[in-house]
Design a protein that fits this description.
Elements: H1 9-14, H2 45-52, H3 62-72, H4 75-84, E1 89-92, H5 95-104, E2 116-122, H6 125-138, E3 141-148, E4 161-166, E5 172-179, H7 180-194, H8 203-211
Parallel strand pairs: 2-5
Antiparallel strand pairs: 1-2, 3-4, 4-5
């Protein structure tokens, strides 16, 4: 397979090398106009969800299979962390969620660091920092992925402490530390965020929780 010169990742994924009307990311044969069979219902989240669990009636293009395999390769690292930290919970990023981040957030120039992500709850903010210190001592972490959103709330509404772990295979995992009250608050806010709704109404409540030590 010969990639055209000066091809960016965005062009590689969303271009149409063979001009058959099917984007490369959905085309099993992006360089062969005569061999194209885009997956049925390839635009629906249901399709991707079924494919994630290897439904034999659903077939993904080779590009989407590559994303799926990459994400699922984080499972041993992810599961081992959960076993050793019983209070933690999390998820491996799904194929549609990954595509959404790549395409709509346009993260073509950097690695997606939250393919595997977990949250560790605490009773209050003091517990958040205690847990973060404990994890730093036990795991390798990347200081460039550390984000203290308690000191600098994201968008003025999001509070938490994020730590990026990295293992010997260069796989990364995002660990979020939040108080239980902040978890409830951020989950409600995230629902509006996914719907592109304004988050302005959350500022007052976020500040109130912060002042109470959450």
């Amino acid at each position: 397979m010969k990639i055209p010169k000066n091809t960016t990742l965005k062009t590689f994924l969303l271009g149409d090398f063979d001009g058959d009307g099917v984007l490369n990311i959905d085309d099993p044969y992006p360089f062969n106009k005569k061999r194209t069979y885009p997956p049925k219902n390839d635009r629906t989240s249901k399709h991707y969800h079924r494919s994630r669990y290897y439904d034999p009636d659903v077939k993904l293009s080779i590009q989407l299979i590559a994303i799926q395999k990459h994400n699922n390769s984080h499972e041993p690292y992810f599961n081992n962390f959960l076993r050793n930290n019983p209070t933690a919970f999390g998820r491996i990023k799904s194929v549609p969620s990954t595509l959404n981040k790549i395409i709509h957030k346009e993260q073509f120039h950097k690695r997606i660091v939250d393919v595997a992500a977990v949250t560790i709850p605490s009773k209050n903010r003091k517990g958040v920092y205690r847990n973060a210190t404990r994890i730093k001592r036990r795991y390798n972490y990347d200081p460039t992925m550390t984000r203290d959103y308690y000191k600098n709330p994201k968008g003025g509404t999001y509070y938490g402490f994020h730590l990026g772990l990295i293992n010997h295979r260069e796989q990364r995992m995002e660990v979020q530390f939040k108080s239980e009250r902040m978890i409830d608050y951020s989950q409600k806010m995230h629902e509006d965020y996914k719907k592109d709704k304004s988050l302005k109404k959350y500022e007052k409540k976020g500040k109130a929780l912060f002042k109470k030590g959450y």
